[in-house]
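Protocol step 4 of 5: obtain the predicted structure for the target chain.
Materials: sequence only (see below). No template structures provided, no constraints applied. The aim of this step is simply to have a reference model before the mutagenesis design in step 5. Sequence pasted as it appears in the construct record:
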Amino acid sequence: MEIENRKSSNGVNSKIVAVIMASIVISFLVGAGSLLLVFHFFPDFARDTVTNITKTEKEVTVTDTGIADAVEKIYDSVVVVKTYQRNQLYATGTGFVYKKEGNKYYLLTNYHVIESGNSVGVVFTNGKEEKVKIEGGDKYADIAVLSYETKDEIAVSEIGKSVDMRVGDTVFAIGAPLDSDVYSWSVTRGVLSGKDRQVTVSTTNSYSSDWIMQVLQTDTAINSGNSGGPLCNSNGQVIGITNMKLAQTGIEGMGFAIPIEEAANYADAVIKGEDVSRPFIGISMIDASNIYAASQYGFTPTDGVLISEIVEDSPADKAGLRDGDIIIGINDTKVSSVASLRYELYKYKIGDTITVKYLRNGKEKDAKLTLVANED
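Step 4 output (structure tokens):
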């Protein structure tokens, strides 16, 4: 009986297994059939549903070992610039050794760093301060050339090319921000944020802009005291001279530098003893958009430059311009403000003849002027 019962049990188990297997096969076939129908009638849906889609993203490997080697190349050529009024320290900034001729070293800084002083000294990385000579300077270029004679060897910076830089390239600045006794030769790093930026500035510390500068933009930290220092590429070459930043609520990381090509052109002219005077036409100017000036002269505020005064025997006087005329162009270029007029005018050289377009009593007129040097 036990054997029979055992046989009977095994038979029942075999039938159960068979039924289960048959169910699995039927389910598989039904599922497969359903899947085939889905692929047949809804191919896109089926593909997205049952296929694992692998998207390959571009992989970028960034290896950054820092810029210490580049910094070391230029570090000892950077100086702290100290401006004195009647032997009292008035302002500090930054500069760098630009070139050497014989025993004479030439240094560059910003004009606004030294303009209010009657003597200037520079401090080298060894801590020694030396008096330097002001060879020349220009407030519109915002460049000043200093010189120092010595038989000692002084590190000279290597000059690069801003025109070869690409937006996004690494740049760094070295300077003496805030307190030069504490933070001298600080290094800050960023990228080149933009090229050929036109920024309106005031050269008279007033609220009205009277000049346009074409500069490099960077997010490298630029603080008070950095002015005149080098902006360098990742190879430690100077590609600009830091000179300003936008500082107001809601703005971060917008610093600017004078392209080294422009600074070098001016500096080389000064070093060679060439005349770097700006052309002069002999007028006092006010933006024609100024509502008070417009009211005084009886016209509606507009783009252009109002002549408020004419210098006797000046090019403007000889060309027949008068008080109250509104200059709207130089040659084929429109001018909309005092800043834009100067920007266009200073593209020409002394001795050049230009055509000034102006309005008088609402009528457009032309006048030819031959530019002379400003004797001020």
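Step 4 remarks: Residues 352 and 371 are 6 Å apart (CA to CA). The longest strand covers residues 186-201.
Proceed to step 5.
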